[in-house]
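User: Please fill in residues for this 589-position structure.
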């Protein structure tokens, strides 16, 4: 068995990474037994940003993630957990327990069109119909803290401080340099580089000079939790990493661990991960795999310089995931040392599938990056670099699913998820469908409280639409939904609906057919076989359910919306790769 042992000192941990179904040595130490808690459990919610389905060890990855792997092996591994295909709508559903079209994120705030602007549910921030999770828990006597990516409103009145968090240090936009706030993510004017906005307890702040996102967010959350230890109150902590969202940036020592690891390319890594998925029981043996769109070049058609750049990008991405896991370990070790870990319910998830899109195509971002950023192979991952890792690696991260972030196919919405803590059946693999709206009611049940329903402080509010997972996680129920329960998705004109094992998907060409496609996910997890023609009765039933979903949620169906400019699905990624690998001049854009 291969192993990699690395010792950390100070705030870090001794850890041993082993591939396989073994108890992982090192890192934080779990409690000896899952005793019945003496008081209400603490709650720790951890979210990764753009982490692919197979990007942690428990889900088949080669990347060192011993802390998450240990949580999974000693808790519940959720193989069919679903989110939105975009970050802010997922976070809106997480905080509300309701559908994104009802709570203010019918579309991404950055991409709202004139037809959507001003319509109910398309405010671009959590609207006043939401009683957010932190507020419900605060009202129930919890102290509340969050660090990391908020992305649910930029203004102070829409920041975490206004939604129930006692303390917060938040990136309020969708992304930024991991080395500081000197660059945001979208440039309107290439001569005026964007600057990210952070807020602490609602007020605008500048990040410290030694900032690296994952290190800082974990450390600041620990500070917040330590400060409230003497209150006697349980805590709700929300740790929302910006890793591994682009730009790809990491510590040199973390990148060096993965240098050369990805030289074999996309197909080789996909085969490795699929074999581990099978061995670990995450997917059934013989699962069919989506291997990528025909528009994308195969690894062996890339030049040596392009391959070298791609391999380095994936090494930086792996380093970001590695660092995120190490910082999760720091938080867990603090909880262990302070005697709080045994009585803490932990839930981990990614906000959407791996991201194979390109921000270069939004506004004038491409011009800014080509003008000001050094994306040479030697500089990748360092301050002053700003790059993505493209559709090739993203499709590997989505294995075995079809496509990735921004799509309603499984690659965009099926995410890794782990539950651990008091009552959670240890060492279990949970294969039933679950959804991000289910987290809020689960946490309320864990905390011994409940959402106020349809009235709060004298005004009408939205009830929770999700279902508590607690009985399922405890092994007292086989699942959350029956074959007649419906869950729908829509963003940017792409849409889907699931009912039992059946799913319909609509995507624009060339990614889909621009018609409803029908899949049986029990038999075709990779959505390779469209059954709409051979099963018209089921298709009609599903489309009728979709129409009902639209009525319930106020979803706006706008013709040709999926083809709008914006997220380009990396149509020009390989052109930019040639420039950044030194094969074309920077003026070639």
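Assistant: Residues filled in for all 589 positions:
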């Amino acid at each position: 068995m291969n192993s990699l042992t690395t010792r950390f000192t100070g705030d870090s941990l001794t850890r041993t990474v082993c591939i396989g179904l073994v108890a992982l040595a090192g890192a934080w130490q779990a409690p000896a037994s899952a005793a019945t808690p003496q008081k209400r459990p603490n709650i720790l919610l951890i979210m990764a940003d753009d982490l692919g389905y197979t990007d942690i060890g428990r889900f088949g990855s080669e990347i060192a993630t011993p802390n998450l792997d240990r949580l999974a092996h000693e808790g519940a591994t959720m193989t069919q957990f679903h989110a939105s295909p975009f970050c802010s709508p997922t976070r809106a559903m997480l905080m509300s327990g309701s559908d994104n079209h009802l709570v203010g994120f019918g579309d991404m705030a950055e991409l709202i069109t004139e037809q959507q602007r001003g319509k109910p549910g398309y405010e671009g921030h959590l609207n006043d119909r939401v009683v957010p999770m932190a507020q419900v828990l605060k009202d129930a006597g919890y102290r509340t803290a969050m660090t990391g990516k908020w992305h649910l409103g930029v203004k102070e009145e829409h920041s975490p401080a206004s939604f129930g968090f006692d303390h917060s240090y938040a990136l309020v936009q969708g992304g930024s340099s991991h080395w500081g706030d000197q660059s945001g993510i979208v440039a309107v004017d290439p001569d005026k580089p964007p600057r990210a906005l952070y807020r602490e307890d609602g007020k605008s702040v500048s990040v410290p000079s030694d900032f690296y996102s994952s290190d800082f967010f974990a450390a600041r959350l620990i500070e917040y939790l330590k400060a409230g230890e003497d209150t006697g109150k349980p805590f709700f902590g929300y740790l929302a990493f910006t890793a591994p969202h682009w730009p790809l940036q990491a510590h040199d020592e973390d990148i060096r661990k993965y240098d050369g690891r990805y030289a074999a390319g996309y197909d080789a890594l996909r085969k490795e991960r699929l074999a581990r998925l099978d061995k670990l029981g995450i997917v059934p043996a013989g699962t069919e795999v989506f291997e990528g769109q025909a528009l994308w070049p195969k690894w062996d058609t890339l030049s040596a310089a392009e391959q070298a750049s791609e391999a380095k990008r994936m090494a930086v991405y792996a380093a970001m995931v590695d660092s995120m896991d190490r910082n999760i370990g720091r938080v867990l070790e603090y909880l262990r040392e302070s005697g709080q870990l045994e009585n803490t319910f932990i839930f981990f998830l990614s906000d959407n599938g791996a991201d194979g899109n390109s921000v270069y195509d939004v506004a004038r971002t491409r011009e800014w990056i080509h003008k000001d950023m050094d994306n040479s192979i030697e500089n990748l991952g360092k301050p002053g670099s700003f790059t993505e890792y493209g559709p090739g690696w993203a499709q590997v991260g989505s294995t075995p699913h079809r496509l990735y972030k921004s799509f309603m196919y499984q690659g965009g919405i099926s995410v890794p998820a782990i539950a651990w803590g008091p009552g959670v059946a240890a060492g279990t693999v949970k294969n039933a469908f679950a959804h991000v709206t289910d987290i809020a009611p689960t946490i309320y049940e864990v905390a011994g409280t409940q959402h106020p329903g349809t009235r709060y402080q004298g005004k009408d509010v939205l009830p929770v639409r999700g279902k508590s997972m607690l009985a399922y996680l405890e092994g007292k129920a086989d699942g959350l939904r029956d074959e007649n329960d419906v869950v729908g998705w829509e963003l940017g004109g792409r849409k889907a609906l699931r009912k039992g094992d059946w799913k319909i998907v609509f995507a624009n060409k060339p990614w889909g057919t621009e018609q409803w496609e029908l899949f049986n996910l029990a038999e075709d997890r990779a959505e390779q076989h469209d059954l709409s023609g051979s099963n018209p009765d089921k298709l009609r039933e599903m489309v009728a359910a979709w129409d009902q979903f639209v009525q319930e949620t106020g979803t706006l169906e706008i013709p040709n919306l999926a083809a709008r400019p914006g997220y380009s699905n990396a149509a020009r990624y390989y052109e930019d790769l040639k420039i950044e690998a030194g094969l074309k001049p920077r003026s070639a854009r």
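For context: The chain has one domain: 41-481.
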